[in-house]
Amino acid sequence: MNEPIIIAIDGYSSCGKSTIAKALANRLNFAYVDTGAMYRAVSLYFLREKLNWEILSVKEIENTLDQIAITFVYNESKNSSETYLNGENVEDEIRGKKVSQAVSEVSQIKAIRSRMVGLQQSVDNRSGLIMDGRDIGTKVFPKAQLKLFMDADPKIRAQRRFNELKATGKEITLEEVEENLESRDYNDTNRKENPLRQAEDAIVLDNSNLDQEEQLIWVLKLLKEKGLI
Predict the structure, then answer these.
(1) Residue 204 maps to a domain
(2) Where in 52-211 does DSSP place strands (E)?
(3) Spatial distance between the Cα atoms of 82 and 114, rounded to a whole number of angstroms
(4) Domain CATH number, residue 147
(5) Is residue 229 part of a domain?
């Protein structure tokens, strides 16, 4: 019996990892997990409860994680999955400025990463699985049949993120977005626990000059060349 196909997508913030992952999942009818949303949901819980993750003990963090349930519910009207925290739809809130500023720090904590990685590895992948994040190809699924590492020009990434936030009514400047991305890149690549890095067998997708449809075509062609679809 053939192993279920797993596609691991890693890369920097605002490179369109989730966008291409969702598009592939829809086209291939694979399960999809947005690991970034998981860390954002945890960050939101800590912020709401006014918990300072910098001073909490490992046991206190683990006890806090026991109070958190993260699920994804498909929204047919939007044709996409939305993130639920303890039964509440928090998809919009976890994309806000406060969570974006906190998530890089929260996701560096060993106890949190260990819990999230365990949850990610336990996802039902029998129908095929696409997962995006920072350590999917290096830590979560090191034996994934296809690993992509996404990148783009920092200025383009910032402009894309700025446009997304403005479209949802967020009050933010382009300079603030650039600073946030720069900070997240540093934290992601320099943290002790599972830092962002390109897996040795990952294929780089620089989408600085590619639109969403061109990226989808590029990855589908790659999958066909590898005999995975």
Answers:
(1) yes
(2) 70-75, 80-85, 88-89, 129-133, 146-151, 203-206
(3) 23
(4) 3.40.50.300
(5) no
Q: How far apart are CA 190 and CA 195, in angstroms?
A: 6
Specify whether the CB–CB gap between 223 and 229 falls below 8 A: yes
Q: What is the domain extent for residue 14? A: 6-222
Of 94, 99, 101, 106, residue with least CA distance to 179:
101
Question: Cα separations (Å) of 123 from 29, 62, 154, 198?
Answer: 15, 20, 32, 23
Cα–Cα distance for residue pair 78/94, rounded to 1 Å: 17
pTM for the structure as a whole? 0.88
Amino acid at 80: S
Say if CB 196 and CB 134 are below 8 A apart: yes
- The count of structural domains within the chain is 1
| 228: its two tokens | 């995975």
Q: Is residue 137 part of a domain?
A: yes
Going 48 to 51 to 52 to 57, the CA torsion angle's sign is negative
φ/ψ bin of 79: left (φ > 0), alpha (ψ from -120 to 50), beta (otherwise): left
pLDDT tens-digit series, residues 55-96: 999 999 999 999 999 998 888 887 778 899 999 999 999 998
pLDDT digits (tens, 9 = 90+) for 35-46: 999 999 999 999
Please report, rounded to a whole number, the percentage of residues in the chain having pLDDT higher than 90.
79
205: nearest Cα among 81, 3, 4, 23: 23
Asked whether residue 128 is domain-assigned, the answer is yes
